[in-house]
Amino acid sequence: MSWSWISKIIERKILDEVKKQLNIDVSKSEVDGVKNFRQCRFCQATIPEGCVFCPSCGRSLE
After folding, report:
1. If you compute the radius of gyration of the chain from its CA atoms, what whole number of angstroms results?
2. What integer pLDDT is reported at residue 29 of this predicted model?
3. Which pLDDT belongs to residue 27?
4. pTM surpassing 0.85?
């Protein structure tokens, strides 16, 4: 028997509770859209697109 349907129900209930408590919209499209990353040219760490400094080595990315 597959338990994936149970985990999907639990995940949805958790997301709904987070939405109520934090008063934010937690939709799958927002979660999927957070994949804009780049690499630091000095230490090759993965960095979110909007960062100016590398959180690993502290060097400027501009």
Report:
1. 17
2. 43
3. 58
4. no
Map tokens 């709904």 to a residue.
16
The string of DSSP letters for 1-62 reads: ---HHHHHHHHHHHHHHHHHHHT----HHHHHT---EEE-TTT--EEETT-SB-TTT--B--
Burial 25-60, CB ≥16 within 10 A → b, else e: eeeeeeeeeeeeeeebeeeeeebeeeeeebeeeeee
Mind listing the pLDDT tens digit for each residue in 23-57? 765 555 444 445 578 888 888 888 887 788 888 88
- What ranges do the domains of the chain cover? 4-48
Can you read off the two tokens belonging to residue 33?
Answer: 């859209």
